[in-house]
């Protein structure tokens, strides 16, 4: 009788410990899931021209000869999304269909300009292969230096007054669209908006 009681107690403790281990594992997975679904805007680096400041002014020739020059940083009828990319960046290539979609759906208020640096032949081959004729495309090392772009893909949204509306590293559609949302809300980033008192 006593032996049966001891065995049942041991089995009960094993079941309790297994349940605790299961609860711990579930709590950990909930934390991981929360991180994945939490609002994630473009990662804004604290370098280069700041949100609200005047954007650096540039007047640049396009990659393809004969196309109009591209002016940046001056007041304009539309906002400008300056998208820094590279022909060797796989994430940049992944975002090209998203940029094409935004180029159509947001064309009433937005102009998208692709920019990079490097050798012209390499970029012309990339331009043709990726079908980028619908975008202005400029090569300028100085532009990347002015914005202090260290990682790609990087995007800057310049408003109609020539001021920096939003900027940051963009690795997904959500991060790219967070720049548009930040402009609409009049904040530096979606994270800044969510961190305001009374926001959840």
TrEMBL record:
Annotated transmembrane regions: 6-27
Organism listed in the record: Thauera sinica
Alphabetized Pfam families for the sequence: Redoxin
Keyword Transmembrane helix: yes
PROSITE patterns: THIOREDOXIN_2 (PS51352)
Full protein name: Methylamine utilization protein MauD
Keyword Membrane: yes
Main location (coarse class): membrane
Segments forming a coiled coil: none
Protein's membrane topology: Single-pass membrane protein
Purpose: May be specifically involved in the processing, transport, and/or maturation of the MADH beta-subunit.
